[in-house]
Amino acid sequence: MPAYTLLVLNWNGRAILPGMLGSVIEQVAGAGGKLLVFDNGSDDGSDRDALELMGQNPLFSLVRSPVNLGFAAGVNEAMRVVDTDVTVIANSDTLFSEGSLTNLVEGLLRHPRAGLAGPRLLWPDGSLQQSMRDFPFPGRIIIEHLPVLRRSSYRHDPHETEMRCDWLVGAVMAVRTAALRAVGGFDEDYFFYHEETDLQYRLKKAGWETWFIPSSQVVHLEGASAKRKFGEDVYLRYIPAKIRFLSKHAGAGSRAAFRVWMALLMLGRMAAGSVNPALRRRDGRFRAVYCMKALKLLFGNTERNNA
Hints:
The protein is α/β, with parallel strands linked by helices. The chain has helices spanning 17-30, 46-54, 70-78, 100-110, 138-145, 177-182, 195-205, 226-230, 238-249, 252-275, 277-282, 288-299; strands at 4-10, 34-40, 60-65, 86-91, 94-96, 114-122, 128-129, 132-133, 163-165, 167-168, 172-176, 209-220. The protein has 2 domains: 4-227, Spore Coat Polysaccharide Biosynthesis Protein SpsA, Chain A, CATH 3.90.550; 229-299, no CATH class. The chain contains 12 helices and 12 strands. The protein is globular, with a radius of gyration of 19 Å. The model is unreliable at 303-307 (pLDDT under 50).
């Protein structure tokens, strides 16, 4: 198996980065790989913690940005120093099970047309975190939410079989370095969310495939860094990101259909939350204030997701 670089993106990850690095260092060393941490303008000392933890380990290197470039620009900047055929890009809020790195890289290389592969993501309690997705065109988004039809979507697949899919949640992505560079890397107009969707769509257009590799299992503490930046509204950031995606890859009709569908969904949630207080206490997405913020994002100037 060719050597790979494990590229870890970090922003103020003092509470989570040491555990993440501890879960991977022996796996990287065993494969003759490299471990690169790109620090995205942290001010909590997590970059210094990483240096202290790794010491003089020759496999380890640290690259710092003085400001938070966001995920897409951060990866692109870090990729300047990557010299291996495979790059595994990982968030700092992940924990790799034993053998998962090897399984993921081998899974990528097992499929000649695979440009990108991802693991089976788990919540901290060990339950499945659905990571396979359909490309977010309005028709597929609607199908994901309809009780009977949603069984045909990747999101509602059991996530037990190695398979090709549209795109994978980007908490961990193994990519062929040459393929990533050939399509121009990540689109830096995505500051937050759906930059991986856009990349995998462009890889598909270039003839590459995305593969789900369930033999690789990774715990994902979803949004650990994002929640420090956006608080409880973190999931609202998907709205401008989807509009950005549709602006690039679909017509005005698709953007309009997405806005109408999401507006109806938010109005329905707001109504459900108003008649069922327990529902809005259990899930903040049913609160009126959350739904109103979503509507504002839907119909505001949101084609750049850099708030």
